[in-house]
Amino acid sequence: MSAPLLQLRGVTAYYGAIAALKGVDVDVNAGEIVTLIGANGAGKSTLMMTIFGAPQARDGSIVYDRRDITRMPTHEIARLKIAQSPEGRRIFGRMSVLENLKMGAAVTGFAHYEEDLARVFSIFPRLKERANQRGGTLSGGEQQMLAIARALMSRPRLLLLDEPSLGLAPLVAKQIFSVVADLNRDEGLTVFLVEQNAYHALKLAHRGYVMVNGKITLSGEGRELLERPEVRAAYLEGGR
């Protein structure tokens, strides 16, 4: 079997003296949607940021496309066809939609800019309507669309998607998950998804991991984890 596109082994990360990640092992194979679920403060977003080099892993290894990126600076990782749509969206509020998308394209150059712009506008027609509007004046759902579109402008093979449904109305969140499923099915985009809405995340994902206090405690196929009594009790009961 070929090596995973992304492989983490024994990864630890610290904030000062506090261990946020405690020996994490995760595999993401090319063409998969893999989700990481867990309670607030479990270390999920820290794991996403550690993959991107900020903070850097103290121990263990992070290998992407057979290349060790554990000690690589963030700006170099971004050039390797990994893109991140971070928690809280972090778009540039004073810049227009178009300017935000240009920032995404700048990571890998502008050779395919017009083509990529047409692609993200076809995925998110709302952004085309709002092209000249400031990012900060968009609704929460539109800002999330912009964060994902900005990431897609760098033509990633792997998209790190952190809490895409956070703060969104259920209907808008459903729309975002539907786009992620389409990108995976139609374009073969590999997605590593951190998501608090365990029900939607596990329904969407091929495989999933459960994180508790910086450690992976369970893993398996998305549908299989949905049926596990301990997952249902901790993350699903009454929480849809």
UniProtKB/TrEMBL annotation:
Give the UniProt keywords, A-Z.
Answer: Amino-acid transport, ATP-binding, Nucleotide-binding, Transport
Which InterPro entries does this chain map to?
A: AAA+_ATPase, ABC_branched_ATPase_LivF/BraG, ABC_transporter-like_ATP-bd, ABC_transporter-like_CS, BCAA_Transport_ATP-bd_LivF, P-loop_NTPase
Molecular function GO terms recorded: ATP binding
State the Gene3D superfamilies in the record: P-loop containing nucleotide triphosphate hydrolases
Q: Which ranges carry the ABC transporter domain?
A: 6-238
Q: Name one Pfam family in it.
A: ABC_tran
> What PROSITE patterns does the record point to?
ABC_TRANSPORTER_1 (PS00211), ABC_TRANSPORTER_2 (PS50893)
Q: Which family does it belong to?
A: Belongs to the ABC transporter superfamily.
Give the protein name, as stated in the record: ABC transporter ATP-binding protein
